[in-house]
Specification:
Layout lengths: L1 E10 L29 E2 L1 H15 L18 H6 E3 L5 E3 L2 E3 L2 E10 L2 E6 L1 H6 L14 E4 L7 E2 L4 E4 L12 E2 L2 H11 L2 E3 L2 H10 L2 E8 L6 E11 L5 E9 L18 E4 L2 E4 L17 E2 L2 E2 L5 H10 L1 H4 L12 E7 L5 E2 L1
Parallel strand pairs: 7-12, 8-10
Antiparallel strand pairs: 1-15, 1-20, 1-21, 2-6, 3-4, 5-15, 6-7, 6-15, 8-12, 9-10, 11-20, 13-14, 16-17, 18-19
């Protein structure tokens, strides 16, 4: 059975997911981008690695987070969800596919104060608007702020279009009341531009910092060790998809040596075994914590494990430069897009 979930994320700090190594150009350490649009993104591989590691922490399975040391048990939420390799004997493919996180709304300073910039195409492709009223021209913008004057975005001056602002649809289940307020505050200050301008606006307003390496012996800055790096700025809204492809479901554990999971179902306030997926904690693994922060921590499907890991990104962050205060990302909302699941 496959299911599609869409996640709305908010950066709490600048986020730097690098491309590896130095390059000649505006900055020494650049961030990952889409080849066609040159828009920054967080690659699915970076998301998957961090989510797996954080989920392993939460489920008490740290040895299953890396490339080696997997327990390979069908009742392990980490091995079952993300897969594992066992050398010459092979392994098992994971049951989730985590895709790139793309920029949805981008924060920019303007003469009207802070605004968030997006495009009708981007909102339409992600299912947040159902209809695009007319077509924008380069140099124009639409907004719901009540701002009818030209809008200065630093080096770029835009004029108000006569087109009306489309209605932003529901983004699904908000993680908290605070998350709902943050989304409402940003969409109230939303401006839409063309796709051509959007890429230029984003790349002109990325956060760029300069740092210097410190000599560990002297505690002073090393000579000729100055470097610059860029990041997706704080208060950027990101969106990504995760597909659960639970190909193992329904197979008997005694046929062809294929593992099956047993579903964790709560009956009479206790997690009990059912004929579908694994109970958690595993009765054969006393090291797995049954609770976290006083709450039951059972899991019923791989998507529960993904969410558990993604929630820790608010504390532990994504990408590099974590010691410089980079990386925290908050899960705001999760929902199933129309036509997003089935057998």
């Amino acid at each position: 059975m496959y299911e599609l979930r869409r996640y709305l994320l908010l950066t709490l700090d600048p986020v730097h997911v690098g491309t590896g190594g130095y390059r000649l150009g505006r900055v020494d350490l650049s961030i990952a981008r889409e080849p066609g649009t040159r828009l920054p993104k967080i690659p699915g591989t970076s998301l998957s690695g961090a989510i797996r590691q954080y989920a392993a922490y939460r489920y008490g399975k740290p040895t299953c987070a890396g490339q080696k040391g997997h327990c390979t048990q069908p009742s392990c939420p980490i091995c079952y969800t993300f897969g594992y390799a066992t050398g010459a004997s092979g392994g098992h493919q994971g049951t989730v596919r985590i895709f790139d996180a793309h920029i949805l709304l981008f924060p920019v300073h303007s003469m009207a104060g802070p605004v968030w910039v997006s495009t009708p195409t981007r909102l339409h492709d992600w299912g947040l608007i159902t209809q695009r009223q007319g077509e924008l021209k380069d140099g124009e913008f639409v907004t719901n702020m009540g701002w009818n004057q030209p809008l200065n975005l630093g080096w770029l001056m835009l004029t108000r279009s006569s087109e009306s602002m489309p209605t932003i649809g529901n983004v699904g289940n908000m993680a908290s009341g605070q998350a709902k307020e943050a989304w409402a505050a940003s969409t109230k200050r939303l401006i839409l531009v063309t796709d051509k301008l959007f890429s230029q606006i984003v790349n002109s307003n990325l956060e760029v910092r300069t740092s210097v390496s410190i000599d560990p012996e002297t505690g002073a800055a090393e000579e000729k060790a100055l470097f610059t790096y860029e990041a997706i700025p704080r208060a950027t809204w990101l969106i990504c998809d995760v597909v659960q492809d639970d190909y193992r479901e329904g197979h008997s554990p005694w046929s062809n040596n294929r593992p099956v999971t047993r579903q964790a179902m709560k009956q009479n306030n206790t997690w009990q075994e059912n004929s579908g997926r694994p109970i958690y904690p595993d009765p054969q693994n006393g090291g797995q914590p049954a609770k976290e922060d006083g709450r039951e921590k059972g899991w019923c499907r791989p998507l529960d494990v993904v969410r558990a890991g993604l929630e820790l990104a608010e504390l532990l962050g994504l990408g590099g430069m974590g010691t410089r205060g980079f990386g925290r990302v908050r899960l705001i909302a999760e929902w199933e897009p129309q036509g997003g699941g089935g057998r």
